[in-house]
C-alpha cells in the first residue's frame, strides 16, 4: 500500500499542467498521429498503454507503433466473447508487427458470471455485463498508468463528438490520447489499404463495428454503422469512453454505462 501511494504521489508531482495540456492539444490537433504518439512516449513512457479492440482505428495505431518501433504497451479487453475471427486477427497482428497484445480479462469467467448473475447477462442487463467484462477490467489495466491511447473518432457517436487529441481522462491523474480523433472513416480505411494492414473479415460481411459476438449483428445498407451494436436497445456505448460516475452501478437498461 505504501509503495502504491508513493507511486501515485510521484505521478501527481509530474502530472501535466493545464497549460501544458492546452499547448499539446493545440500542437497535435489535426496533425500526424505519429507525432501524437511520439509526444506521448516522450512524456509518459513507460507508463503508457494502448487499448486495442482490433477495430480499424486500433489497427492503424498498432501498425504505426509497430512500424515506428514505439515503446508502447498494447492490451485488449478479452471478454471471452470475441468472434473467432477477432481471435485469429489478434494472433495475426502480433506476428505481423512483432508486438504483444496483452489480454486483460474479467474477474469472473463466463461460467462464474452465469452462476453469480444468471445466464446470458448481456441479453437481460447489457450495461451490467459491459461493466463486469469491460469497464472494471479497464480500470485494472489502467492502474499505475499515466496515459492511455484510444482509437476513438469524433464522428463515431454523439458521446465522442467533443473528444480532443489529448485531454484529461475522467480518472484522476490520467491523460487520454486520441491520435485519430479528427480522422474520418475514409481516412482510416485509406491507411489500412495503403499499408496492407490485416483487418477483421467480418467487416466484409456487413459488420462495420465489431464487439462481443452476442451483442453484434450485421448492418443493412443505409443503417448507421453503430446500429449493429446492442441492436434493439438504446445502448450505444459500452462505457469505456463515457464520462460517468466511476462508482455508479450500471443499470439494467440501455444507454451508455
State the gist of this model.
The chain is of the alpha/beta class. The protein is about 40% helix and about 10% strand. It starts with a helix and ends in a 63-residue tail after the last helix.
What does this structure look like?
This protein is an alpha/beta fold and 257 residues long. It has a single domain (2-202), classed as Rossmann fold, CATH 3.40.50.620. The protein has nine helices and six strands, in the order H-H-H-E-H-E-H-E-H-H-H-E-E-E-H. Strands 3-2-1-4-6-5 form a six-stranded mixed sheet. The protein is globular, with a radius of gyration of 18 Å. The two termini are 30 Å apart. The model is unreliable at 4-11 and 243-257 (pLDDT under 50).
- From the 3D coordinates, which CATH architecture would you assign? 3-Layer(aba) Sandwich
Helical segment count: 9
Which shape, going by the Cα principal axes? globular
The CATH superfamily appears as HUPs
Total tally of structural domains = 1
The count of strands amounts to: 6
Structural category is alpha/beta
Core attributes:
Rossmann fold; 257 residues; 39% helix; 9 helices; six-stranded mixed sheet; 6 strands; 9% strand; single chain; alpha/beta
Question: How is the secondary structure organized here?
Answer:
Blueprint (H helix, E strand, L loop, with lengths): L1 H12 L4 H11 L4 H12 L3 E4 L4 H12 L5 E5 L6 H14 L3 E4 L5 H8 L3 H4 L1 H17 L4 E3 L16 E3 L6 E3 L7 H10 L63
Parallel strand pairs: 1-2, 1-4, 2-3, 4-6
Antiparallel strand pairs: 5-6
Helix pairs in contact: 4-9
Amino acid at each position: 500500500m505504501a509503495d502504491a501511494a508513493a507511486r501515485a504521489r510521484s505521478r501527481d508531482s509530474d502530472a501535466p499542467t493545464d497549460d501544458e495540456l492546452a499547448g499539446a492539444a493545440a500542437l497535435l490537433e489535426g496533425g500526424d498521429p505519429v507525432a501524437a504518439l511520439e509526444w506521448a512516449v516522450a512524456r509518459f513512457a513507460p507508463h503508457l498503454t494502448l487499448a486495442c479492440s482490433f477495430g480499424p482505428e486500433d489497427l492503424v495505431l498498432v501498425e504505426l507503433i509497430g512500424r515506428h518501433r514505439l515503446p508502447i504497451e498494447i492490451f485488449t479487453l478479452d471478454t471471452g466473447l470475441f468472434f473467432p475471427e477477432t481471435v485469429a486477427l489478434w494472433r495475426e497482428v502480433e506476428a505481423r508487427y512483432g508486438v504483444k497484445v496483452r489480454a486483460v480479462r474479467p474477474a469472473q469467467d463466463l461460467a462464474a458470471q452465469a452462476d453469480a448473475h444468471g445466464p446470458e447477462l448481456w441479453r437481460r442487463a447489457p450495461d451490467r455485463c459491459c461493466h463486469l467484462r469491460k469497464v472494471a477490467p479497464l480500470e485494472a489495466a489502467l492502474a499505475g498508468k499515466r496515459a492511455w491511447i484510444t482509437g476513438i473518432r469524433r464522428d463515431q457517436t454523439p458521446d465522442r463528438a467533443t473528444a480532443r487529441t489529448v485531454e484529461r481522462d475522467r480518472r484522476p491523474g490520467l491523460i487520454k490520447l486520441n491520435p485519430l480523433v479528427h480522422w474520418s472513416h475514409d481516412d482510416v480505411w485509406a491507411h489500412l489499404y495503403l499499408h496492407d494492414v490485416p483487418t477483421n473479415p467480418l467487416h466484409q460481411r456487413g459488420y462495420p463495428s465489431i464487439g462481443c459476438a452476442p451483442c453484434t449483428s450485421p448492418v443493412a445498407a443505409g443503417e448507421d454503422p453503430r446500429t449493429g451494436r446492442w441492436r434493439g436497445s438504446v445502448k450505444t456505448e459500452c462505457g469505456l469512453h463515457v464520462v460517468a460516475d466511476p462508482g455508479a452501478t450500471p443499470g439494467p437498461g440501455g444507454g451508455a454505462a
